[in-house]
Each structure stands twice: as C-alpha cells, then as structure tokens.
Amino acid sequence: MRSVSILSSAARTARGSNDLFEKCRNFTRPRDLQDAGLYLYFGVFNDHKGCAPGEIRMRNRKVLMFGSNDYLGLTTHPKVMEAAIEAVRRYGSGCSGSRLLNGTLDLHVEVEARLAALVHKEAAMIFGTGFQANYAALSAITDKGEVMLCDHNLHASLVEGALRSPARTVRFRHNDMEHLERCLENCSPEEKVLIVSEGVFSMEGDLADLPGIVRLAKKYQARTYVDEAHGIGVLGATGAGTAEHLGVLDEMDIVMGTFSKSLATVGGFVASEQAVVDYLKHTARPFVFSASLAPASVAAVRAALDIIREEPDRQRRLLAVAQRLRVELRARGCYVLEGETPIVPVVVANELDLCRLCKALLEDGIYVNPVLRPAATQNLLRISCTAAHTDAHVDRLVEAIIRLAKKLDIPLSD
Ligand SMILES: Cc1ncc(COP(=O)(O)O)c(C=O)c1O
Asked: In this predicted model, what pLDDT tens digit does every residue of 326-359 receive, in sequence order?
C-alpha cells in the first residue's frame, strides 16, 4: 500500500498542471495594473496625527479624505473614542463566545434596545459586521417555497444572503415599481414574499422608492426588508434613515443597518418585530456560530447614537457639503448622478481614465475611490462627503478634479 501511495503522489507531482493553486498564480490582473502603475487598492493609511478633521495620513503625508463612509465624522470624535477605551477597561477586549452562550453583555442588550427604538421596531440584534447581518438575516428568514424579490442593484451581502437561501430569488429592475408589480403578479398565491431593497444605494447614492415598495407590499401581502447602511445617521429627522426620510419607517418590516459608516466603528444590526428577532437569534447560523461584537465597538455605537441625537447639526452639515459639491461639479460641466445623499458619483466613462484620475488626485493629496463596473452600472469617481469636510475642502476637490482631468485629457461631461 505504501509503495502505491508514493507512486500516486509522484504521479500527481509530475502532473504539475493539476495544482489547486495554479489559478492563483495565473491571476495576473492586480499585477498587470501594478505594472501599469494604476493599482489603487489596499493603500496603507497611517494615523490622524497632526491632521485636521477630514484629513488622514497616508505614506506619512496628509491626505484629504473623500473616500470614507464615516459620514458624520465620528470615528475620531472624543466621546466615541473615550467610550471605546472605557469599554475595554470595563469589559476587556472581547467576549470570546457566541451571543447565544457566553457572549452577551449588558452593553449588547442596551444598545440593541436603542437601535430598535431608533428604527421604530420591537427588537434588534447585533452582528459582527453589516455583511454578516444581511447574509445571516436574508438566508435565515426565507424558506423553501418562498420568494425574495430583490432590487437589481443590491449590495453583495444581500446577494450572497439571497443565494444562500432556499427561497426562490427574483431580481426586479432597479427601483422600477412597475417591474416589481409584475414580479409580484407572477408569484403564485401560495408563495410568501419578501421584497428586499437598500434605502440609499451604496454605489450610485440614489434613494429607493420605499413608499412604492410599501404600497405594493400591502397590495400583495408581501413583507419588506430595507438595508439602511448608508441611510442611518444621514437621512430622516432623527437619523433613522431613508424610510424615516420618506415617511414609511413604521411600514418597513425589517430594517438593517451597519456600524461601519455613520455609527463610526464596525458591526451591524437587524431590527423587526420581537418574534422575527427571536427566530433569527436561534436560526441565523452566522449569528449563532460566531463570537459577539467586541465591547469597544458596542460602546462606540452607543456614544455615536447619543451624538446623533445631541448634535443634529452634523447631519445638516453633511448634506449641505454634498449639495455644494454637486452644484460646483455640475457648474463645471461634470456628469454627476442625481441624488441627495453624501455619495456624489461622477461618471468617468473609461475605466483606465478613472484609475488615472484617482491616482493623480492622490498624488495631489486627495483620496477618492474609483468604482469600476460591474460594481456599479457605470464607472464612477465615487466621492463620499462627511460632516468633517469644510467648504474649502470641497473647493479644493473640485479645483483638483477639473485641473487634473484637463491635464490628463479625461472627459467628465456626459
Ligand atoms: C448597502 C450595504 N450593505 C451592507 C454593507 C456591509 O456592511 P459592513 O461593511 O459594515 O460589513 C455595506 C458595506 O459597504 C453596504 O454598502
């Protein structure tokens, strides 16, 4: 037997092309971009030492940050940082267990109640990331014989959750209520339906027609799920998100949010009626079989929620900065997608041009993210505004975009 196994392993060695890792070695896209000097990913940032709000250090020089989802500028707010430090002192650096067993702190329970109240639901549950929240909730709440009707432009975490679910998934055209109604009509009467949308779409920054979704959900007896990753802290009179802004918060059945944007840390949550949350707490495998969120992050969320309530000016400032940027860019002929959120996407038709522009901006001291198809329907310079930005920052960004696009001969109009 021994000699057979040696022979077969020798035979495998001889078949060098049968190596599982071969695909990795042949994966040259990043290297090709590096060779062309246009690889823009995994840039390394340093700390905020000596930086004003809105800036960060990168390669030990100050960079103006227009690529962060820290919409309210709270990641460096003294109260948020102090809350995280105090939680580490009080609870330690982690919980070392699942929420189901030894991983639930009084802090988790308190913040879950605060989140539920924010989005007008009976209960909420915290996850390790926003991705995990969507993936776990969508895959666990739907069963065989049920249907999920998903907007075409959903975030990967929702798409993965839908793929993992045994339910049938149908994608309706982006924000197209007529198409959604046709999809609803095509469901059989026995099929129970969940309609899934983002509140603010993450790449293009546009708002979902949540009132339209709610109307159709009522008409066809469907349930609704809204991802408020980019809505919470940004929209709505109390910062509860898009559904609050559009007057349908109470009608949404499940509201999901992340902590990695306005709430200034990492993690996510899902809120709904108590029975739904209890069901998910016992059936959503990424929740049951994963350790609970670290105390520092939970405490940071609590502090961020306090600030959202106490400093509503941040939200106003954020939206004003984004509006100013949109107006200034359009006045100079840029093709900026419609929207009212802090995500200001400028269309740069050619992929290579977009990478060249981002690289030139960075050399000029401004960081902006490129979004390449198919992550969005068009190649986008995805500018992300925060409450930390000043009018002077906006003016500097606009001047740099126009100057550099002209120098590099990159068209920015439609
Ligand atoms: C719409 C949307 N949902 C979910 C997520 C995942 O959230 P997190 O990064 O907190 O895991 C993101 C993150 O970018 C997002 O944009």
From this structure: 999 999 999 999 999 999 999 999 999 999 999 9
Length of the chain: 414
The Cα–Cα gap between 18 and 13 comes to 8
What percentage of the chain reaches a pLDDT higher than 70? 96
Within-domain flag for 183: yes
* Total count of domains within the chain: 2
Show the tokens assigned to 2.
Answer: 């021994």
Sorted by sequence, the CB contacts under 8 Å of residue 318 that are 6+ apart come out as 71, 72, 234, 342, 385, 386, 387
CA of 131 to the centre of ligand 1 (A): 6
Mean pLDDT for all residues in the chain: 94
260 lines ligand 1 (CB under 6 A): yes
Question: Of 276, 310, 344, which one is at a domain's C-terminal end?
Answer: 310
- Residue 348 is assigned to a structural domain of this protein: yes
Amino acid in position 206: D
Best residue among 157, 201, 234 to mutate for probing ligand 1, ranked by most atoms within 8 Å of CB: 157
Do 107 and 207 lie in one domain? The reply is: yes
Q: Indicate whether 400 belongs to any domain.
A: yes
- The low-confidence residues of the chain, meaning pLDDT below 70, are 1-16
Same domain, 263 and 286: yes
Domain end position, chosen among 283, 310, 337? 310
Decide the pairing of beta strands 123-127 and 147-151. Answer: unpaired
Q: Same domain for 172 and 182?
A: yes
CA of 182 to the centre of ligand 1 (A): 29
Residue 354 and residue 224 share a domain? no
Is the beta carbon of 157 within 6 A of some atom in ligand 1? yes
CA 116 to chain centre: 20
Which residues participate in catalysis according to the annotation?
69, 155, 198, 202, 227, 230, 261
Residue 401's domain comprises 32-65+312-407
Predicted pLDDT of residue 412: 92
Which of 202, 301, 380 gets mutated to test ligand 1 (max ligand atoms within 8 A of its CB)? 202
For 140-177, write each residue's pLDDT tens digit. 999 999 999 999 999 999 999 999 999 999 999 999 99
State if residue 202 touches ligand 1 by the CB under 6 angstroms criterion.
Answer: yes
- 297 Cβ below 6 A of ligand 1: no
Q: Would the CB of 129 count as within 6 Å of ligand 1?
A: yes
Tell me the pLDDT tens digit for each residue of 80-117.
999 999 999 999 999 999 999 999 999 999 999 999 99
Note whether 179 and 317 are same-domain residues. no
* Best CA proximity match to 108, nearest among 296, 288, 302, 298: 298
